[in-house]
Amino acid sequence: MERYAVLGHRIGHSMSPFLHGRLFELAGRKAEYQKLDWPAEEIGRRIGELFALDGFNVTMPHKVEIIPCLDELDASAAKYQSVNVVRCGAKKVGFNTDAYGFLKSLEMLGAKTDGRTLLLGLGGVGRTFARECLDAGADLTVTVLPGDRQAEAAAGELRARSGRDFCLTTLDRAEGHFDLMINATPVGMFPKTAQSPAGEELIARTDRVFDAVYNPEHTLLSRLCEQAGKPCLTGMPMLVFQAVKAHEIWYGAEFSPEQIRTVIRDCNEFMGAHFSA
User: Fold this and answer.
1) Which in 5, 116, 140, 253 has the greatest CB count within 10 A?
2) If you average pLDDT over every residue of the chain, what do you get?
3) pTM of the model
4) Which residue in the list 30, 35, 63, 104 is annotated as catalytic?
């Protein structure tokens, strides 16, 4: 029996066991997957227990804290200095599948990262989205809250790391037409589902929308896009693609597009039954 886990803190709501359980089932592998809800001080004391696993996922708040415990970082983790997948064995190697999940989701949406792009929010996941868009050559505009010094600092770091400039502004000053709008904020997430990070006027100036919120499956933003005839994809595919990549890393798994669509559907149904009103 292979053994895997997700490491984080305050992760009682995590659907990782269900998601990864479905992927193991489809791959025909007998594997146990558990939640390790550990505060930071537990990691050093129980590192042997952690590395006795075949592999594990890492979620908040340990994506950076786990790095000193590892032997090596893959290029994806080194790029973002953040780890969400670890492969155990003779060498403990850290990976980051956030960008992979993001890019595969845009592919599903039929969107490209090299056009005129509007990114709402510059938190942890927002910085990943921004870097991938900048690396692809996008004309990027990022909106943040007025006077958000943390976002301004993140923008400066992003410019230095990417070697590219972009427009940092507030939502009410985002002008013109956009090929793609990306919501990297929690606005619209359960339980505050009656909120949208963008209104009808901005949606009308946008060709496609990716909303990283995955609970609920149909956000207010996605419903407004549907009313306006604009393609919109919410965040569950990104979550599933990240997990699919983890299984590729752990044991070379291969899943068909049909299998991935089935897992996305199953996860939306599971989430709706367990983590919503």
Assistant:
1) 140
2) 95
3) 0.93
4) 63
